[in-house]
Amino acid sequence: MGGAEEKKAKVAERGQEGGSPKASSQLLDSIEKLQVIQDELEAINEKASYEVLEVEKKFNELRKPVFAKRNEVIVSIQDFWLTAFLSHPVLGDILSKEDKEILKHMVSLELEEAKDVKSGYSITLNFSPNPYFEDKKLTKTYCYDEEGNLSIRCEPIKWKEGKGITDGDRHEKGAKRPYTSESFFTWFSEVVWSDGRVDEIAEIIRDDLWPNPLKHLQNEVDATGLYGEGEGEEVTGESNVGINEDEDEEEEEVVDDDDKEYREEDGDDEEEIDYEGTDADADEED
């Protein structure tokens, strides 16, 4: 029995329990009309969902060269991704001391959507050679099946001897994991789970950090003056002090030279005046 027929049967049943046959008939007709309209809306919604996915796929391809251009600039900025993570109000709180040291070697972030968009995405962190692990890149993939169930795949990190971050507290399925108990890299290398749990860290990277890493970084720059006008040029308070001191020393040296020259010239003039005055006195005596 379809949805419309079920609704009609329920309405008819209620009409039999009480109320006039005429009223029940009119209600049935109205329900049938509403169902037709609702089916029409559902068809439009289904078409809209399909077309939205097609548009998203198109613009994902258009974004790729722009993201590549952005990365070319980012790699010239020292510790960019470390600063971007630290500046984020959520991601900054989950970074351990070891995480921060490792992120200094991170050169780029990549996010790849599945071809059909709706079936998942992958997050990849690329690294320069570093003393912590052998991997040049770390990838974590999120996959959705046709029923919308989520599964996660990630390769274990190949830590170098004596390195590695201890696993944080493991929690039962369905439990919300407190960020403070685990580091970023224990999260990134977490084993596969498929309990339908929402992964907030991955969503933050996909929906917030990746589209615009400058959003929170700019707030940090405005507040602390982290970078100067040139990309990657650090302008700390200490540096400013040094620059001002050098300028003051140069100014003092210039002033001292001028004073010295001025005094010498002034002294010469005084000597000439004294000499001329001596000649005049001699003439008067003669």
Automatic annotation (TrEMBL):
<comment type="similarity">
    <text>Belongs to the nucleosome assembly protein (NAP) family.</text>
</comment>
<dbReference type="GO" id="GO:0006334">
    <property type="term" value="P:nucleosome assembly"/>
</dbReference>
<keyword id="KW-0175">Coiled coil</keyword>
<dbReference type="GO" id="GO:0005634">
    <property type="term" value="C:nucleus"/>
</dbReference>
<feature type="region of interest" description="Disordered">
    <location>
        <begin position="225"/>
        <end position="286"/>
    </location>
</feature>
<keyword id="KW-0143">Chaperone</keyword>
<feature type="compositionally biased region" description="Acidic residues">
    <location>
        <begin position="244"/>
        <end position="286"/>
    </location>
</feature>
<dbReference type="InterPro" id="IPR037231">
    <property type="entry name" value="NAP-like_sf"/>
</dbReference>
<feature type="compositionally biased region" description="Basic and acidic residues">
    <location>
        <begin position="1"/>
        <end position="16"/>
    </location>
</feature>
<dbReference type="GO" id="GO:0042393">
    <property type="term" value="F:histone binding"/>
</dbReference>
<dbReference type="InterPro" id="IPR002164">
    <property type="entry name" value="NAP_family"/>
</dbReference>
<feature type="region of interest" description="Disordered">
    <location>
        <begin position="1"/>
        <end position="26"/>
    </location>
</feature>
<dbReference type="Pfam" id="PF00956">
    <property type="entry name" value="NAP"/>
</dbReference>
<protein>
    <submittedName>
        <fullName>NAP1-related protein 2-like isoform X5</fullName>
    </submittedName>
</protein>
<dbReference type="GO" id="GO:0000724">
    <property type="term" value="P:double-strand break repair via homologous recombination"/>
</dbReference>
